[in-house]
Amino acid sequence: MRAVLWSALLAALLAPARAALIPEPEVKIEVLQKPFICHRKTKGGDMMLVHYEGYLERDGTLFHSTHKHNNGQPIWFTLGILEALKGWDRGLKGMCVGEKRKLTIPPALGYGKEGKAPGVLALGNRPWSWRSWSRPPRSPCVDSVKFPLRAH
């Protein structure tokens, strides 16, 4: 019994050390278009209105687009509170109005290895959250996702 308790205690003490060794995935940000003057940059808590297209990096397959799948309407979300992908929260901070970015989001910050969101999605022309969010078509081998985004 003591051996089990010591093993459990040792495992609990070593778990944070193992987690610290795994590097946090990063979002690759490429600025495609920047306004001449940037009056203010985005920060956590800002409401964002964006058009986006989601592509699989592996083969360039388009899996979602606000232009095609959302009645051509951009979507609203609040930056920094996990209403959208973690990769969006990280990749859209510091963006100017009118700026266009391409984000390459690793699976851990996007839809995961199986290419599915943790909810059921029904996009509409209104602010949304994970509870009202649907998922892209399932893809067994999502390497990462590119999101050309433009803040309006």
TrEMBL record:
Top EC class, one word: isomerase
Annotated keywords: Glycoprotein, Isomerase, Repeat, Rotamase, Signal
Catalytic activity: [protein]-peptidylproline (omega=180) = [protein]-peptidylproline (omega=0)
Occurrences of domain PPIase FKBP-type (ranges): 45-120
Top-level division of the source organism's lineage: Eukaryota
Signal peptide positions on this chain: 1-19
Any one GO molecular function term: peptidyl-prolyl cis-trans isomerase activity
EC nos: 5.2.1.8
UniProt keyword annotation of Secreted present: no
UniProt cross-references to PANTHER family, sorted A to Z: PEPTIDYL-PROLYL CIS-TRANS ISOMERASE FKBP14, PEPTIDYL-PROLYL CIS-TRANS ISOMERASE FKBP7/14
Name assigned to this protein: peptidylprolyl isomerase
Biological classification of the source: Eukaryota, Metazoa, Chordata, Craniata, Vertebrata
Name of the gene this protein is made from: FKBP14
